[in-house]
Amino acid sequence: MCAQKKLNVLELFAGVGGFRFGLEKAAPNLYKTKWSNQWEPSKKQQDAFDCYNKHFPDSINMNEDISKIPNETFKKMDIDMIVGGFPCQDYSVARSLSGQLGIAGKKGVLFWEIIRVLENSNPKFVFLENVDRLLKSPAKQRGRDFGIMLSAMNSLGYTVEWRVINAAEYGQAQKRRRVFILAYKNDEAFATKYIKKNNEDMIYFDSLFAKEFPVENFPNKNRVLEGELSEDIVSVSDSFSATFYNSGIMKNGLYTTIDTIPKLETPITLKEILQDEKDVDEKYYLDDEAVSKFKYLRGPKKIHRTSADGHEYVFAEGGMSETDDLNKPGRTMLTSEGSKNRSTHLIKINNRYRILTPIECEKLNGFPPDWTKGMSERMRYFCMGNALVTGIVERIGKSLSREIKDIDL
Predict the structure, then answer these.
(1) What's the pTM?
(2) Sorting pLDDT into bands at 50, 70 and 90, what band is 2?
(3) Which of 2, 51, 88, 383 is the catalytic position?
(4) Known active-site residue 2
(5) Which structural domains are found in the chain, ordered by start?
């Protein structure tokens, strides 16, 4: 790779820096995060921003409501790549009442801020992450939201690839399923490598995702679909509905989606990420009362309840194992990790029960120990419940660096 080749990166919804950490581990001379924005609404203490700013003081790190950052700010940035994990929201759009202002997304929906940034900076690449239910939302019009996203990206001249990746299926320490989205400009040299390739071949063999995260060369249960998106994004919002599987590609409004089967890699186990017990503070161990509470929460139950309007019903919940298996990867970590909650990891070592420490939660996501040190323990758990698995970002970053090795950017 030419020494002077680099991609200037803007990281949006940056959290504690998972994208940047992963990309810079992948290719520190290629990815140069020059700007970031992280802002938590309705909170005086901006813990995630403070963490990011502490680790990455060399970039311009903004702590602002993105909707209030003017277009001119983004126009002045020489952005090659935008990255970010954004909330799954209602992406529907409508025509303005005057008919002169084009379409308008719902106020406060952060995806439309990403589109605004793209319109004003025209980056070569876009690399995004979201929960996998994005592909199926909303429940009453399945696939509409993702269809709107694809339509919006298509209107700006991007090809879009996506893949739902369970991190543990590709060698990581956590069973965390997320959809990763890579978009690239149709008029850039990178796209010419793929523009004439068959979509199915790309999904199985030739795309960045296929090369880095191999799948079987046949679909699960023959689930292969093709479709076309209307050029009218309002029409997509009003009436589009489709099934989007865990892998897919969209070029010039035409999409192919396949339910692919991952070629499994051996994951990192919980046992491998645990701290030495002599380094674990006594406060993480549970007394008999707390153990009983966890056993109840994790056990099967049927509870008679009455709704606000007087309707009686039975709330039923299946049981789960008493403790988490140390010989398996961790379950999906939620923002409630560390509390007395059914979703909190509970482990048993030397006949004693305890929860995971903040350091162990950081390691579940591939961060170095004490990455979030300095904020309250509650927020350390919360931030890791919100974070992505950095090892997946690192692998995508490495794959992209190989793909552009011989391309003139």
Answers:
(1) 0.94
(2) very low
(3) 88
(4) no
(5) 7-265+389-403 (3.40.50.150), 270-386 (3.90.120.10)
